[in-house]
Structure formats: structure tokens, C-alpha cells
From TrEMBL:
Record's protein name: Ferric oxidoreductase domain-containing protein
Highest classification ranks of the organism: unclassified sequences, metagenomes, ecological metagenomes
Spans traversing the lipid bilayer: 40-57, 78-99, 119-140, 152-171, 177-199
Cell location: Membrane
Keyword field: Membrane, Transmembrane, Transmembrane helix
Amino acid sequence: MTRRGAAILMAAPTGLTVAAVALALPQVFAGGGPLRAMANLAALTALTCLPPLVLLGTRNPLAVQALGLARAFTVHRALGLVFPALLAIHAGLHTYRFAEAMGLTSFQAALALPNTWEMVAGKAALALFLAAWGAALLGTAGRLPRRIWRPVHLAVHLAAPAAFVHALFRGEDMTRGWLFTAWAVAAATWLAAAAWRALGPRTA
């Protein structure tokens, strides 16, 4: 396969996810106030980051051929900074909305958020994503040995399914229209990349 072909195939799931989110914007901003819309938009933007993030992070042959190993690592690292920030914005804005509605502080609201099973999945995903990000940040800076940070960083493969479940069952209107298309493309890309990582050749 040519480098251009690999780049097109790698960009396809990201492009489809971005297009689906763009087409769903009227649905995202339909009622509920600007804070709700911005919180959900942050989560959807994070969703569009997942296809390239997992393809690059698993050193998928498409990503390596399209960008080269060094550039793939650079892009993965950059997305790795954006992705947890978007998740933090999503969680923070929804917590703030809940605090305002209930007359609580943000800290009290974070503790008082309903612990339905899909919320527990979301909280677990957020904690695992942040742990994976922090471990990689410290590890690549030489502050943690590889034997410690690498297994923690691989927690993303536990966080991703929890995040997809949370998005589908907790996300407002996520099962309808273009929002479901965005979810399905991102989920399928993660599943394919995770399967390749599990079944493909071992890499360092």
C-alpha cells in the first residue's frame, strides 16, 4: 500500500466521525442551555479524537506508514494532551450545572452526582484516562520507570469501553441520528485497533 493510501484509510474514521458530529450540531444545541451544549460538545470533540488516538497509540501499520513512527508518536502525544482536557471540561461543566441546580458547591456536587451504573462507567473511564495520561506524561519525562508507567498507560484499553458505554446509555440522544453514527464509527475504530494490538505482532 502507498503512503497516500495508508493516510486516506487512517483519516477515514476520523473524517467520518467529525462529519457526523458536525451534522449533529443542531441536535446538540437544541435546548438545555449553553452550558449543557458546551459540555456535550466537549465530549463529542473528545470522541472525534479517539480514532486517531488509538490508531497512533497502538502503532497501527496504517498510522506508521502514513506518518512515520516519529511523527506518529508526536501527533499521538499532542492528542494525548487535548483528549483528557476535553474530558475534564465535559465533566466539569456538567458538575457545575448540577451544583447550580442543587445549590451545592462543585465539590459537593461531584460527590452527589447520581451513581447509576452508566455514571459509574463514566467516572471510571475518566479516572482511568487521567491515570493513563499522567503515567505517560511522567514516564516520557523520565520520572517513572517504564515497567510502572507503561502498564498504567495501557489502562486506556479498559477506559475506552467504559467511556463508550457511558456515552451510549447516558449521553442525551446518543442513540439517534448522526450522534449514533459518530459513536459507532469511533467505537468500531477503537475495537479494530484494540483487536490488532491484542492479536497482532508484539511491539515494544
